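Anyone up for a design puzzle?
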């Protein structure tokens, strides 16, 4: 089974009647190594995207990253709300490629957060080139401290297998976002790769 390679959430722009009250933003970034959900994608990868969020909770965006053989182009849209002290979200994400690096993934995303804890589940389908279509479920539990430190346990089920741990730190210096992450995948995810340390730098812009 081909490894599940994709990037950060992002996608088709959402157009709603509340656009006049919406917030638009853009971002650019660079990673010393591009990892997504524990899987290695490419060394030295640049990226950029645009995001939309309305006051009513609807959101959408598009994001692209260099994967060597063309671009990975992601799209997402969804809705988020809060019930008491619990944040909830539901959405769709598609992962598409301009070259032969990988094939299309499409998934439904479910999320819930309470305090410093967040749970995310993605239920998806992988086109798998000329092979049979594969179904997968991705799940993660993340703890994010107030000081920028975070830890994550995540994995896959159905036609995908594997688990990984990720520990990292993020901060902002002079309006530049800086991050470092340690990734510890198991054998199903790692393949020929071992543990990794990834450095990232990025910048966000209000539009």
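Challenge accepted. My sequence:
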């Amino acid at each position: 089974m081909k490894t599940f390679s994709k990037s950060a959430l992002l996608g088709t722009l959402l157009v709603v009647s509340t656009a006049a009250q919406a917030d638009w933003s853009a971002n650019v970034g660079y990673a010393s190594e591009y990892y997504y959900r524990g899987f290695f994608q490419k060394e030295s990868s640049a990226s950029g995207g645009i995001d939309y969020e309305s006051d009513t909770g609807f959101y959408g965006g598009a994001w692209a990253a260099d994967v060597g053989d063309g671009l990975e182009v992601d799209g997402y849209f969804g809705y988020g709300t809060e019930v008491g002290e619990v944040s909830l979200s539901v959405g769709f994400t598609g992962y598409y490629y301009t070259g032969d690096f990988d094939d299309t993934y499409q998934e439904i995303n479910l999320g819930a957060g309470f305090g410093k804890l967040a749970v995310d589940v993605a239920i998806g389908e992988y086109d798998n080139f000329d092979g049979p279509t594969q179904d997968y479920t991705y799940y993660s539990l993340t703890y994010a401290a107030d000081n920028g430190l975070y830890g994550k346990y995540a994995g896959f089920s159905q036609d995908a297998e594997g688990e990984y741990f990720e520990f990292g730190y993020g901060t902002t210096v002079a309006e530049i976002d800086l991050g470092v992450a340690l990734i510890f995948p198991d054998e199903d995810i790692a393949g020929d790769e071992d543990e990794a340390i990834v450095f990232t730098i990025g910048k966000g812009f209000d539009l």
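A detail worth pointing out: The CA atoms of residues 92 and 108 lie 5 Å apart.
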